[in-house]
Design goal:
Layout: E1 12-19, H1 25-34, H2 36-40, E2 45-52, E3 58-65, H3 68-75, H4 78-87, E4 92-97
Amino acid sequence: MTTTINENDGLLTVINVFTVEPDQQQSLVDHLVTNLATAKKQEGFVSANIHKSLDGTRVINYAQWTSKEALDLALQNQEFMAPVKKAVEYPHDFHMYEVVFTTQA
């Protein structure tokens, strides 16, 4: 599957906003990208999209899972959680969402 933002797809969206010092931003981006191979092995993983703010103070991971249950299973997996534990050492705001509306030009 690929990243799809659609209110009818039934996917779980996880948005994790990390707060970093500008000199730490690229290091966190590299860590997240490098460890996506582990996420890709998890049942129910759909996609991850890493964004970095232009001011250097934020990194956002926009991830999609087939369901909350699939994410919950991944969060119990030691291999998946090892790199997650390092990432969440940074101040972060983690929430789960459902897409309720989209529009196009």
